[in-house]
Write a structure and sequence with these properties.
five-stranded mixed sheet, elongated, alpha+beta, six-stranded antiparallel sheet
């Protein structure tokens, strides 16, 4: 509070004291009628107590002149009492305003200051409740900010539209409003939500004054009672003073917040300038290093090493199949590096084909310019891979020609075959597996289908080169000759190859594999026979609906011999054991498994019950049900063979 306000308050107090002194002098009338009233004034008695001396005089039968003197003395004493009460009240108000202004001057916490204003307003006005609402410019309404004395949760969460309720009217008109009885007052718009909140709180009399910043209303300060009450002019003015202090507190807090934000922004800008300078230097450094690598024919691992030094981290080049699938696909689609945990993954692509990824380890907070550096390094890596691929395509054609010769058995000189394979880092004396791979999707037109096949051949050739094998395009698909490592199986190699090729070309690839083959240089016709076996496995997988999978001849046993050509496998299974399968699906029974165990155990119910761990009567009951479903001749040799074959096919189809 300013010095002028304090001096003005002092002058007002002096005037009140002078008025009281004059009244006291007037009371000293002849006859000593003032004495009882002076005593009442001295002990601060209530207004009702001033009637007692007059009533006592009348009861004693004192003269009318004495009673009249007492009446005059009483009126003067009450005036003095009122002046003293007003002075004390104004002193309390000034003290509260001064303390609030002091709090505002040392503003640290806006919520605490606003809470203090509402508490003091409630205390000085003697109301049951005091509260403060603020306008929300974005939603165009006003909401509760601070409450004191409130007990209703719905009231504390009220939002008032402009013009709604008493508070909405104050916020809209920028003028104080007071109502002696809220629910009987028709000057403002009543709504169910507001009336329900006021009713929950039990409020009757409400006074609201606007919080002004210049010409703008930013909120409303309220004082309210749970009974009918008339608010005096002085009380309205006092609440207005508190509202002015609240508005000043909000304005000060906003300016302080803006100042802090501006300072923080300046500090951040300074940090960014320093960081940008260092980043630009790093970007220039990596540009020079990558240019040098390209000019001297460096490899992808040289690029990774150079970027590792510049970004002060570990950068690795990984194959597409070895990188995290989701972030790799996101990076390929977006054309930007993608963060996963503490790592960054940048896809290395060329013409829509995924060649691999650059992975930066342990840098979750990568700078945008450093992220761009990683992305440019991925681009340089793709250029180097394309250059290497151009050189390797000739080698791939040579690999394909050698495999074609092995398949067609044209060149039978073992020495020449070994020499040609040696130049390609392949060893024809090692154990190999022949794999037939084919795309399962149907391209919209011939050009796209041809492009898909080229991509499959390219991916297969790359895989064969890295695995010291051979690859060639054949019969609308691709054939691979890959060495079989110790401990590995043809089935595992087929499934792994299907996954790797599918990831490389972004389409479903099915792979059928032969069994392990040896002595390829001595008996080159072995490759052709193994390729035919692999194709039969491929056809079997497709007929069984296992597209995108990989399998070897050993997975099918004698059934694989029956699957070549265009056969209706599903129809055969349905015609043979369809009734049993459908019964299991409807009833949740186990007839198919019982049949399988029955034939496996040589059609012996006793051994079957041991296999299934059930009672022999249970086996008998299940077989009786099978007889009713399949017919009484289901155990005849011809029917039994068909049923066993259907059971085997059904089991193989369900494995996918």
């Amino acid at each position: 509070m300013s010095r002028d306000h304090v001096q003005s308050a002092g002058r007002n107090g002096a005037d009140a004291a002078g008025a009281a002194l004059t009244a006291e002098t007037a009371v000293t009338a002849p006859g000593g009628a003032e004495a009882p009233f002076l005593e009442l004034l001295a002990r601060g008695a209530s207004a009702d107590a001033y009637e007692q001396p007059v009533l006592l005089a009348r009861a004693e039968g004192r003269p009318a002149e004495a009673i009249a003197a007492l009446e005059r003395a009483k009126q003067l004493a009450l005036r003095v009492r009122a002046e003293l009460e007003g002075r004390r009240r104004r002193e309390a108000e000034l003290s509260a305003l001064f303390e609030t202004a002091h709090d505002l001057a040392g503003l640290r916490d806006l919520d605490s200051v606003l809470q203090a204003i509402v508490q003091r307003a409630r205390s000085l006005l003697g109301t049951d409740v005091a509260y403060l609402s603020l306008n929300d410019p974005e939603r165009g309404d006003t909401y509760m900010r601070v409450t004191e004395g409130s007990v209703a949760a719905r009231f504390q969460q009220l939002r008032l539209g402009m013009g709604e309720g008493l508070g909405g009217l104050v916020a809209q008109t920028a003028r104080p409003y007071v109502t002696d009885d809220y629910f009987k007052d028709g000057r403002f718009q009543h709504t169910n939500a507001i009336d329900s909140g006021v009713r929950d709180e039990g409020l009757v009399a409400i006074l609201g004054v606007p919080l002004m910043l210049g010409p703008h209303v930013i909120g409303v300060l309220f004082a309210a009672d749970r009974r009918a009450r008339v608010f005096e002019r002085e009380q309205i003015a006092l609440l207005g003073s508190f509202a002015a202090l609240a508005a000043a507190a909000i304005d000060s807090a906003n300016m302080l917040a803006e100042t802090r934000t501006a300072l923080a922004g300046l500090e951040r800008a300074n940090e960014i300038i320093r960081d940008r300078s260092a980043v630009i230097e790093r970007a220039s450094d990596v540009h020079d290093r990558l240019t040098e690598l390209v000019l001297r024919g460096g490899g992808v691992h040289d690029v990774a090493a150079a970027v590792s030094q510049v970004l002060d981290g570990t950068v690795e080049f990984t194959e597409a199949a070895e990188a995290p699938a989701e972030p790799l696909e996101a990076s390929r689609a977006e054309g930007h590096a993608v963060c996963q945990g503490e790592d960054w993954i940048a896809a290395v692509t060329a013409g829509g084909e995924l060649l691999g990824a650059l992975v930066l380890r342990g840098h979750p907070g990568l700078d945008p310019v450093d992220q761009l550096t990683l992305e440019r390094a991925a681009m340089v890596t793709s250029l180097l891979l394309l250059a290497r691929r151009s050189a390797a395509e000739a080698e791939q054609r040579v690999r394909g020609e050698l495999l074609d010769d092995l398949l067609d058995a044209r060149d039978r000189d073992p020495r020449l075959l070994r020499e040609r394979a040696s130049r390609l880092h392949a060893d024809l004396d090692a154990t190999h597996v022949v794999l037939a791979a084919r795309l399962d999707g149907t391209a919209p037109d011939a050009d796209q289908e041809a492009d898909a096949r080229r991509r499959l051949w390219s991916a297969a050739s790359h895989l064969a080169a890295t695995r010291h094998g051979l690859a060639a395009a054949r019969d609308g698909g691709t054939v691979l000759l890959l060495p079989l490592k110790p401990g590995d199986t043809a089935t595992e190699l087929a499934r792994r190859t299907a996954r790797q090729l599918g990831t490389a070309v972004h389409e479903t690839v099915t792979v059928g594999a032969s069994g392990p083959v040896q002595d390829l240089a001595v008996a080159p016709d072995t490759v052709a026979a193994a390729y035919a076996e692999g194709r039969r496995c491929l056809d079997a997988l497709r007929l069984l609906g296992r597209s995108g999978d990989g399998a070897a001849a050993e997975d099918f046993g004698f059934v694989g011999l029956l699957l070549a050509g265009d056969r209706d496998i599903a129809g055969f299974v349905d015609r043979t054991i369809g009734e049993v399968v459908a019964y299991d699906e409807r009833r949740g029974t186990d007839l198919v498994r019982t049949l399988d165990a029955y034939f496996t155990c040589g059609m012996s119910p006793a051994r079957t019950k041991d296999e299934l761990h059930v009672h022999v009567n249970t086996v008998a009951q299940r077989l009786e049900r099978v007889a009713r479903l399949l017919g009484d001749d289901w155990q005849s040799p011809a029917r039994a063979l068909e049923i066993q074959l259907a059971l085997r096919l059904h089991r193989l189809s369900a494995q996918h």
